[in-house]
Design a protein that fits this description.
about 70 residues, mainly alpha, Four Helix Bundle (Hemerythrin (Met), subunit A), about 85% helix, elongated
Amino acid sequence: MNMLHEEEIEIINDFHDAALAGDVVKIDKLFPVVHFDAEDHFTTEEEMMAQNKFYGEQMHKSEHDSMRKKLATL
């Protein structure tokens, strides 16, 4: 799981740097990557929680669902 998070941090950092620089072209290029990566992360994590019968699965999935809604509005 940590390696997964490290890759995500790199993607988010690249997106953040582009946003700070006002690089609209790079933002437009990276946003679909950020969106895809977030969904992939959520799905993978939800599968792992279900397989391991994680006690906080529903609460954590609710957090994912909330973020999914926010991403859908962007």
